């Protein structure tokens, strides 16, 4: 940082998370281009980031999490939820569930239809996924090898998960060895972003060591961007020329001669746009912010996957509940990880997955299960003292839409987060039907020997209305917010960015993160965000004459 001269770079990247790390890698590959990466959190040197089970210590920890809370949600019967977002290098890839999931081909074909750009079709996106992938099975027509983004099998096995998988097959869900081939219907173990039993986040994959050795790359951590600099030229056109940054040493201004790339995530990106005068005019005027560009879609269209956690008590099979109850059990778990990098400490938060339909009316799988050999009352609370499994089910394609809105003109104040879960009749019906699918799986012969007993939500709840209300009582976020700066056609008044992620009406500014998704993908959202960043990097390099 220079106290005398305003630092100027070709590209300024705001946010060192999933998208930002890849952008930094790709754009700094040309030694003639100066690249600055700004990250509000610290470096990813906290040991719990790298031990897979360490997400338990990272979520809710101010060292790694923004500690957001939602507004009381009518669809959740007035409850407010913890809303984790990564505040550390690697962003959410440093604290998430590590599941490698692309979604379904129809997701991307729909994006192409919404934007009018066939570059978003599945057939066009698949090679981009493969470009940075390093799949344990090697390269084939569906997977890449040799890229930065490592994908491995999980290093564990549980009898109860094997039984659940067989029960799902008995209930009509086929077995699947690969959820990433365009149609993820089936049941099987998730593949994960790990390397030899360690979490593989985007900071390891794309920053270290590559970017750190480049003299044209600079990174500031522990700094927060307070606003974008939006200037109007003599011709009346708007351009983003840089940003103001709050650093530990005081305020700083940085300039971008080519582009500013906003990769602060589905919460942070709309917040910063609004603070900078880009957003719904009425909202900005409410807080005395001068309107640079009226963009009514900024902060709207929030979508997320709401998981409904069903818990079944078991007999005659060990689960993590009892295996970790004694000091000796915990010691064995620790020793297994220390010597083999396997076992419970290598576990992603969810190990077994299943994709199926909530009813025959659906052409594609519209439910995703995250199944775990454990149970607890709520995230962060102790495990139950009895053996059990949890089958969390989410509606992959919710029709409910929420919003992210500033609540003051101060960058320090967290924005208002209103997901509006279960606010449509269609979502309430899928919630009720999904609990019935869970019960149908639990009733199959493969699980009968363990005598499953439904603890949550409870067999006394049977009607659509009862189950929908119960979904509101026990549903929680599965940490997949997207859509708050969505892309679309030029004639779409709610579109914030165009098909190449350029902010409408403002030159020199793109949004590159999960907020640009017009609709949520049918699965976990981290790797689709990485694919979005890979495509954006290609456009940026082409637009600004990058070499190599």
UniProtKB/TrEMBL annotation:
Binding annotation for FAD: 88, 225
EC number per UniProt: 1.1.99.1
Record-annotated membrane-spanning stretches: none
Cofactor(s) essential for the protein: FAD
GO molecular function: choline dehydrogenase activity; flavin adenine dinucleotide binding
Enzyme class, broadest EC rank: oxidoreductase
Protein name: Putative choline dehydrogenase lipoprotein oxidoreductase
Source lineage: Bacteria, Pseudomonadati, Pseudomonadota, Betaproteobacteria, Burkholderiales
């Amino acid at each position: 940082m220079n106290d005398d001269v305003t630092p100027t770079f070709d590209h300024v990247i705001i946010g060192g998370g999933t998208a930002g790390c890849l952008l930094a890698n790709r754009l700094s590959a040309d030694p003639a281009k100066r690249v600055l990466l700004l990250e509000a959190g610290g470096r990813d040197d906290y040991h719990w980031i790298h031990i897979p089970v360490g997400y338990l210590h990272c979520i809710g920890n101010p060292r790694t999490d923004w500690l957001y809370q939602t507004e009381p949600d009518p669809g959740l019967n007035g409850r407010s939820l913890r809303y984790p977002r990564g505040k550390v290098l690697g962003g959410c890839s440093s604290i998430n569930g590590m599941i490698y999931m692309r979604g379904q081909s129809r997701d991307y074909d729909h994006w192409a239809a919404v934007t009018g750009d066939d570059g978003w079709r599945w057939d066009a996106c698949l090679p981009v996924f493969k470009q940075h992938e390093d799949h344990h099975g090697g390269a084939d027509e569906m997977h890449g090898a040799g890229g930065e983004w490592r994908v491995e099998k999980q290093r564990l096995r549980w009898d109860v998960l094997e039984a659940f998988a067989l029960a799902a097959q008995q209930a009509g869900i086929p077995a699947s060895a690969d959820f990433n081939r365009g149609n993820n219907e089936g049941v099987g173990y998730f593949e994960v972003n790990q390397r030899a039993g360690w979490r593989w986040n985007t900071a390891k994959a794309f920053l270290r060591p590559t970017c750190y050795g480049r003299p044209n790359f600079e990174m500031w951590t522990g700094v927060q961007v307070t606003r974008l600099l939006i200037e109007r030229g003599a011709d009346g056109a708007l351009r983003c020329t840089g940003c103001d940054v709050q650093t530990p040493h005081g305020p700083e201004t940085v300039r971008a001669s080519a582009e500013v790339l906003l990769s602060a995530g589905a919460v942070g990106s709309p917040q910063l746009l609004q603070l900078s005068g880009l957003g719904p005019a009425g909202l900005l005027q409410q807080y005395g912010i001068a309107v640079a560009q009226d963009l009514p879609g900024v902060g709207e269209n929030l979508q997320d996957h709401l998981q409904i956690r069903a818990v079944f008590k078991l007999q005659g099979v060990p689960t993590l509940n009892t295996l970790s109850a004694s000091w000796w059990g915990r010691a064995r778990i620790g020793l297994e990880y220390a010597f083999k990098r396997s076992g419970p400490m290598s576990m992603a938060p969810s190990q077994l997955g299943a994709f199926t339909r909530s009813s025959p009316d659906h052409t594609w799988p519209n439910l995703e299960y995250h199944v775990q050999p454990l149970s607890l009352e709520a995230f962060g609370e102790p495990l139950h003292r009895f053996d059990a499994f949890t089958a969390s089910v989410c509606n992959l394609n919710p029709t409910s839409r929420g919003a992210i809105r500033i609540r003051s003109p101060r960058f320090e104040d967290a924005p208002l987060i209103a997901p509006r879960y279960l606010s449509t009749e269609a979502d309430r019906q899928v919630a009720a039907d999904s609990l019935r699918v869970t019960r149908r799986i639990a009733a199959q012969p493969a699980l009968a020997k363990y005598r499953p007993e439904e603890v949550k939500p409870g067999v006394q709840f049977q009607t659509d209305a009862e189950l929908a209300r119960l979904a509101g009582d026990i549903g929680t976020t599965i940490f997949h917010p997207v859509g708050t700066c969505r892309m679309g056609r030029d004639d779409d008044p709610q579109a914030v960015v165009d098909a190449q992620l350029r902010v409408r009406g403002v030159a020199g500014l793109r949004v590159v993160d999960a907020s640009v998704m017009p609709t949520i993908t049918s699965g976990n959202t981290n790797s689709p965000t990485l694919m979005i960043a890979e495509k954006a990097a290609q456009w940026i390099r082409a637009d600004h004459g990058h070499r190599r």
